[in-house]
What does this fold into?
Amino acid sequence: MKTSFVDGAFVAPDSQADLLDNRNPSAPTEIVDRFARADAALAEKAIQAAAKASLTWRRSSPQVRATILDRIGTEILARRQELAEVLAREEGKIVREALGEVDRAGHSFKFYAQEALRANGEKFDSVREGVGVDVFTQPVGVIGIISPWNFPIAIPAWKIAPALAFGNTVVFKPAELVPSSAWALAEIISRSGLPAGVFNMLIGPGRTVGDAILRSPQVDAITFTGSESTGRQIAQLAAQRMIRVQLEMGGKNPLVVLDDADLDVAVEVALNGSFYSTGQRCTASSRVIVTAGIHDAFVERLAARTKALRVGDALSGDTDIGPVVDPSQLKQNLSYVEAGLEEGATLVCGGQHLENDKGAYHFSPALFTNVRSHMRIYREEIFGPVLAILKVADYEEALAAAEDTPFGLSAGIVTTSLKYAEDFKRRSSAGMVMVNLPTAGVDYHVPFGGNRGSSLGPREQGTYARQFFTRVKTTYQLA
Ligand code: NAD
It folds into this structure.
């Protein structure tokens, strides 16, 4: 039985513990790992340990932090195949994609190892004679990290690494669907040389363990990735407590395809952005907005490519699209397919539960045409491989359609026109804009995040992470 990591040690297994089994979505009778669930009392212990460790860790040498973070990154990268297979077994991401995610986690630790050493601070002359002004950053304190199931190792890594690099201590709660990757990461961190209490991990439910983290007066900031509805609750609690919060939430990311697009590029970009990782990416392009001149040829080619995608076991090298993560996400995908049909869209292909003898949660990627902009499949985040294609007259109509959403995470355009590419980059209100590239698939060394209902607070990743994970101090001194 695996357990939470608190104050420098994995908690002793308790025969009375509430048990959590995570299952392989490619073969749900198979239990990946068994865990003892943490409760609010254990969360309190972890928070106290983090608060105590913060007093010394905040003054630790940047070299110590850099060496430890680099060591963690090195081990993640050295064990990439094994970690990717754990990820594929518990989340259903195919191994090829899981390897990319593990690499990203390793590189994030190595990037923030260097960031820990990066000089920061500025010196000014005061407007008052004989006075000097220093501006520098300091750690925030105890950071609560709450992560979702769809990137079980990369999202924890890109939150934990900067938190530690900038001298904060951590209480981390992964999603209950994917504790194995989080546990493997915690196990690597446990041997990295961090003092006890600096890093803590709690495997447990959001409503108890997550809630304890959110409400503790010892927690100085919360970084959360997950659904918009949970994000809203967290924002309200953080506002009441007046603590710093960083939220990364949902998306309904548009991909615009213009008449002048290279058709091959357009089809591959749409296929990747909409269906890879089983559509379970916050940056997935779940709506494609296509101008009339290229619409029919685009749909025909995309449908042919979509039908040829092999849906199967995440651990098999032949699989293009792994299973949906769990039965409730499968039900949600199927109910959106039904809603699309009821609202009058045309299902060109897919949208079915592909049953097999292992009971896998396989779902065939779905393509809808004759979509109207009021339809639920066009407006709401489905978080599955369900694509709605909207036909428009021209670029201006496409841009207006792309902007017609409460979200603002990522947006893309496929065009050979420099004029439209530049215009779209400037006028799209998404936080990340792609030209001739899928809306999903981003780098670890540059800022990540969106606007409106997709994100709140400073950007994650790259050098911008310093904004959330540090506080600015201004000092004045009479010479
Ligand atoms: P979720 O909101 O259900 O859960 C996210 C985390 O919050 C989990 O760890 C969960 O246990 C915890 N939680 C749930 N209720 C809580 C509560 N009341 N108090 C404290 N913690 C609580 O989201 P999910 O289903 O795990 O993830 C899917 C969502 O994540 C999608 O909407 C997707 O778009 C979003 N997502 C966004 C990004 C991004 O960077 N913008 C990246 C990945 C996923």
